[in-house]
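$ ./design --mode recover --in tokens.txt
reading tokens...
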């Protein structure tokens, strides 16, 4: 069976767990030569060991310009180009209005917004004409969320990055799309609350999804594969929701 990404070079940031790791695993299974980033070397090494294919781990913090430059030096030396770029690195935390701190704001926006900007802008010399760029957004880009406004605002910024960068890169035929997962069973999601509250969080989120359950990382990876593939050749500047219908009804 033909591999969808055979012969392609892909970079996935924040690929050490959850959705990022699932995307990396799916891309590798589909034949991509893969570069995966993470901030902690031991966690990165463990993640690469779970990827069956041609995968190289590069320790990098997407919010650090120096780290991003070093990442692309490795990619440039080893592969010379990028066909698919997934800007996935990021995170967030709960804080209701009145308790939001400057540090929380900076941590969230540096990781999600600045990190995405540095990741994509730094890749420009290596991105081939016609490349696919996938930005990880969230259903929170279009919905409200109690105690989650800073994270949601950062993901709304990602949504507009996709719209604007699709125009900036139109002369090179580079597609830029946002992928917006709904609630997905990941360490990052359940880690937002103490251990004894994690199942309750998942159950509450599942109750808001028309399909009646939260998503699995592999399901989000399937959507990311579509956006990277020739099947999405006329999909550009869009936000693809993989949310079980949560933000659609």
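writing sequence...
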């Amino acid at each position: 069976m033909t591999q969808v990404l055979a012969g392609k070079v892909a970079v996935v940031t924040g690929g050490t767990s959850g959705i990022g790791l699932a995307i990396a695993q799916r891309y590798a299974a589909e034949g991509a030569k893969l570069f995966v980033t993470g901030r902690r070397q031991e966690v990165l090494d463990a993640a690469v060991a779970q990827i069956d294919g041609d995968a190289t781990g590069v320790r990098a913090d997407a919010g650090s310009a120096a780290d991003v430059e070093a990442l692309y030096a490795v990619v440039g030396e080893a592969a010379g180009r990028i066909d698919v770029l997934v800007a996935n690195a990021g995170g967030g935390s709960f804080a209701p209005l009145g308790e939001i701190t400057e540090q929380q704001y900076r941590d969230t926006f540096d990781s999600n917004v600045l990190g995405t900007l540095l990741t994509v802008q730094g890749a420009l010399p290596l991105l081939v004409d016609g490349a696919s760029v996938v930005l990880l957004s969230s259903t929170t880009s279009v919905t409200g969320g109690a105690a989650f406004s800073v994270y949601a605002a950062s993901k709304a910024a990602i949504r507009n990055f996709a719209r604007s960068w699709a125009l900036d890169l139109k002369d090179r035929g580079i597609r830029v799309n946002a992928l917006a997962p709904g609630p997905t069973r990941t360490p990052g999601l359940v880690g937002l609350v103490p251990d004894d509250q994690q199942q309750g969080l998942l159950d509450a989120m599942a109750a808001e999804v028309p399909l009646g359950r939260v998503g699995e990382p592999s399901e989000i990876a399937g959507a990311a594969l579509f956006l990277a593939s020739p099947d999405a050749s006329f999909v550009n500047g869009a936000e693809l929701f993989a949310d079980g219908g949560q933000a659609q009804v």
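exit 0
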